[in-house]
Design a protein that fits this description.
Largest sheet: 2 strands, parallel
Order of helices and strands: EEHHHHHHH
Organism: Probosciger aterrimus
Mean pLDDT: 85
Low-confidence stretches: none
GO cellular component, one term: axoneme
Radius of gyration: 59 Å
Keywords: Cell projection, Cytoplasm, Cytoskeleton
Number of helices: 7
Number of strands: 2
Distance between the termini: 96 Å
Strand order of the largest sheet: 1-2
InterPro entries: CFAP91, CFAP91_dom
Family: Belongs to the CFAP91 family.
Length: 261
Amino acid sequence: TLGTQTDYRDGEAQTDPYSPEYVVPSGSVPELLTLATLTWGRGLPPGLAEVEMIERAREKCAWEATLPAMDSASNIEKRRKMMEDMERKEWAFREQEIEKLQEVRLEVLKKLLWRQEENQNELVAKRLDAHWQNHQKAKEEKIKKIQSNTALILRKLIAKRKNVMGKLERRDIIKEYIDFASQPYAPLSRIGYFPDNHSERYMVKNVYLNTFAGLCELEASLPDSVTQVKIKAPKPKQTVTKTGYIKRAARLEVALAQVHQ
């Protein structure tokens, strides 16, 4: 359950590699010190750009070694001219680096603009799709309403067509009572009839049905033929005629029984 951590640890959780301290002897300039500005994540591990930078530093050191001494006017003029040429080369190289950096930034900007345009197009497409869906829903609702209105108008026209001349027709009571969907069986509230009003008048109210004494009195008033049922045994069918012949129905029943067996 215990753990230790040292200054020189080496593991998966280590973030930056350890860089030991160093001491430079006087009078010496190690070439390795040119890489002191490079740190982990910023130049290390080195890539192509770092290698080119190291090569340019080496070329500059070699160029500085070839500069003439400042002991005469001709050497000073020659040295100044060489330094101006080197300065022009460095400026040209710097301009190339700036152009490359601008190109990279331009490419990044193009990608960002392209991505933003794609997101905007996707958002516009979603909005158009939602707008189209709403229009389709409104269109379907309007079509349903038109169809229902059309069916209603057609029914009205069919009803008017039955009596084009506008003649008054007498009420056919027999026809109304034959049709169970007519006014006597199913009255409509739109013509002034409300079947739910005064519904208590349809209830049967009788003293003989509401009390036990009334039921006994009602039972006593009934005849014996209602309370005492008499069942008479059926008489057997006559299968033989008066002259002694078997009836055709009896023969047919016997034949049917044989076929059934």
